[in-house]
Fold this sequence. Notes:
Structural class of chain A: mainly alpha
Radius of gyration of chain B: 23 Å
Strand content of chain A: under 5%
Shape of chain A: globular
CATH class of the largest domain in chain B: Alpha Beta
Number of helices of chain A: 10
Helix content of chain B: 25-40%
Order of helices and strands of chain B: EEEHEEHEHHHEHEHEEHEHEEHEH
Strand content of chain B: 25-35%
Helix content of chain A: over 70%
Number of domains of chain B: 2
Largest sheet of chain B: 6 strands, mixed
Number of helices of chain B: 11
Shape of chain B: elongated
Oligomer: heterodimer
Amino acid sequence: MNPFKPFSFSPRQAFRVWQREVSVYKYIYKSTIISNLMDPLIYLVALGFGLGAYVNRMQGLPYIQFIAPGLIASSVMNAASYETTINTFVRIHFDRVYEAMMATPVTVEDIVVGEMMWAMTRSTIYATVMLGVVTALGLTHSWYAIFVPFLGAMGGMMFAILGLTYTSFLKSIDQSNFFFTLLITPLFLFSGVFYPLDALPEIVKTIAFLSPLYHLVEIIRPLIIGQIGYGVILHLVWMIVFILLFVAIPVNLLRKKLVK
Amino acid sequence: MNPFTAEHPVVARGLRKTFESTEAVRGIDFDVLHGECFGFLGPNGAGKTTTMRMIGCVSPLTSGSLKVFGLDTGKSMREIKQRLGVVPQEANLDEELPVEENLTVYARFFNVPSNVAAARAREQLDFMELTEKRMAKVSELSGGMRRRLLISRAMMNEPDLLILDEPTTGLDPQARHLVWDKLFELKRRGVTQIVSTHYMDEAHELCDRVAIMDQGRIIDEGAPQDLIQKHIGREVLEVRVSEPMRSQILAFSLSMVKGYDSYRDLIVLYADEAERILDKIKNSDIKTDYTLVRRSSLEDVFLKLTGRRLTE
C-alpha cells in the first residue's frame, strides 16, 4: 500500500467517533474521575503538606503552591496517555470497536482524529476538575487561570500524539507498561513539576527542554500564580510546533496497522 | 430503477488480493444481482472473508476492478459504505454500551437523525426478538442473541446490500433457524444479500446463487439446484467396500453415473437413479459394509469440486 496516499478525513465523521466515546463515558465518568484524580491529589497532599513543611520556598513560592500547577499539568498528561495507549489498544484488539466503525462511512483518519479529540476532552475535564481543587485550596491567584482548561486540551493533544504513536507499535497490552515506566514517569519527575530545572545538570536540562510536560507546566504555573512573562509565549509556540510537526505520524501508522 | 440499465449492485472483474506472501484471492469475476441472495461457499482459507472485506471497502484490492452500486471501491468508499450493512464473522459489538445504544450509536456513524435512529432501534429489537434485552449489557447475551443484534445493527442505515460473513457459525439449531427466518424476511423486503458460509444446507436454503470458492478462485457458480444437477444428478449412492471390490463396482456402474469419488474405503457414486446401481450390487456377489441411497445435496457438489481431503 502506498503510505503517502492522500488522507480521507471528514470532520463530521471524526465527531461521530468522538460522540461514541462520550456515550461510553456517561457510564464510567463517576468511577474514573475519582480514581484518576486520586493520583495527583495524593502527591499534592503528601508532598505539598508533608515535604512542604521542610522546604522553605521554591522560586519564592510556598512548596504546595509551586507543585499545584505542575500536578494539574501531569493530570492532563496521564488522562491523554491512558486514553491513547491502554484504552485505544483495547478498542483495536479486544473490543474491536474500530473494526466495527470501519464498516460504516468512517475512515481510519476519522477514527484517529476522533480519538485525539476525545483524549483532549478527557484532559480538559481533568485539568478543569484539578483547577477546581487547587482553587478550593486557595492556591489560585489569578483570573488567567481560566485559560487552564484550554491548555489541558493542547496538552492532551500532545500526549495523544505520543500515545497513539506508541500504540501503533504495540503487540500486547503488557508492553503498554513501557510507555509509562520509560516515558511518562521520567517526564513526571524531570519536567519541573516538583523543582525548578535549574537544579539539574546542564545535559539533563537540555533533554528536559524536549519534554512536552515541561512546557505545559511552565505555562500553567504563571497562569495560576498570575505572573505572566514573555516566556509563556515561547512555551506556547513550542507546543503548537510540536503538534503541527507530529500530528500526521500516528494517523499514518494506525492506517498501516488497521487497513489490511 | 430500470433493471436493464442499472448496474448490478456488485460487479467484480479480475479481483485479486495478496497479503505479503500469500495470495488470498487469485483473480475472480462475479456479479451480484438486485434483490438476490448470493453465497460464497468454500472451506476455511478459500478467500471468502477477504472477498467480502473488499466489497465492504475495508480492504484495498491488490489488482482488478470492483464496483459496488456502480462506484469504485477505492475511490468512493464513504458513499458505498453509507449504503452497506455488514455482519462480521466474529461479534464486534460495543461491549461498553448496552444493547439498545449499540444500535443508536452505530446509526450515528451513518448520520441517521437521532429520533429516526431511536425508532429504528425499537423496530429492529422487536423484529429480532430482543426487546426484553434492550437495557442489558452485551456480555449478558447468548451467542444467538449477539448474532441477531449484529444483524439489527447492520440494518440501522436501511442498507441496499447486506454482507453476512458466516451468519450462523457457532449457533445452536434453534438459533440458526431463527436467523434464517429473519434473513428470508429481509430478502422478501428486497434487501440484496451476500452470505459466506461453509454450511451447505444454509447455502441451499438461503441463496439464489452460489459461487464455490477454493484456494482463492471461484470454481463454479450458479443456482444450488442447477449446480447439483450439473455435477451430481438427482441421487447419491454411498458404498463402503474393501479395496479389491471397488474396481468391480465401478466397472458395472460407470455407464449409469455422472461421476464418482472415492476416499479410503468409501465410494460415492453420483447418478440420477442410484437405486438401480444398488440393485445391481445386491444381485452380484460383492460384499459391502455399508450402502446408502440418498438425495444429492450441495454438499456433494462442494466435496466433488473442492476435494475430500482437509486443506489446512
